[in-house]
Amino acid sequence: MEQKSYPSDLSNDEWQIIEPLIPPAKPGGRPRKQDMHEIVNATFYLLRAGCAWRMLPHNFPPWQTVYYYFAKWRKEGVFKRMNDTLRAKLRATAGREEQPSAAILDSQSVKTTETKGDRGYDAGKKVKGRKRHILVDTTGLLLTVVVHPASIQDRDGAKEVLQKAKQGFPRLQLVWADGGYAGKLVDWAKESCQWILEIVKRNDEIKGFHVLPRRWVVERTFAWIGRYRRLSKDYESLAQTSETLIYAAMVYIMIRRLARNNQASIP
What we know:
Blueprint: H1 12-18, H2 36-49, H3 63-76, H4 78-93, E1 102-111, E2 120-122, E3 127-137, E4 142-149, H5 154-166, E5 174-177, H6 184-193, E6 196-199, H7 215-226, H8 239-265
Parallel strand pairs: 1-5, 5-6
Antiparallel strand pairs: 1-3, 2-3, 3-4
């Protein structure tokens, strides 16, 4: 009987996009026997379904094998490199420079579970857990992410994000952020990173909900991430694992976009 695919499985066209980015097997020793397509499919299934590693369906490779590769790639920063490569390709297909000159900064507080790990209490959002601090380009694609306890103030968490991004984005000149980042951080960004940190303020005269320029882009990225049930809360012991899963979710989003773009370009 032919095995049915899951909605999260990569098609052949999508697999061809990510396959060159999979680290090759190390030379020497026994040859790699695992189907890397299925290893990647299992990882994306876990992200979309929100299940535990031990609850991966039996038609995937053993969960221990899938987790082995995920943990190995987490330590080696593989998903971050995939994110950087695919983002550059997607920007190029849109007629943009591969490296951005402007970005948007924001954070999101999420609850944690009983799993061990660092956490804190965000008094403003009334959330006990962690903060996801992200920097995105003007199309909403992820540049970098830092996950830290929710008790850390936005201005302090932002410094870690901007320092992390400083080496990787030489064209970056302008960063937009909300009023929570106003104050000394503006001068710090100018002195430490040579970037302009522009605060997008809310107009108090306008009542009710209204879309703020630039800030809606990063909010949309958080909405994209929220579609992945494993990221509905922070279930991870390590903040690094949370960061890796966010990179993986964005990789999945970009693979599907690139595949659609390639198919649309075929006469």
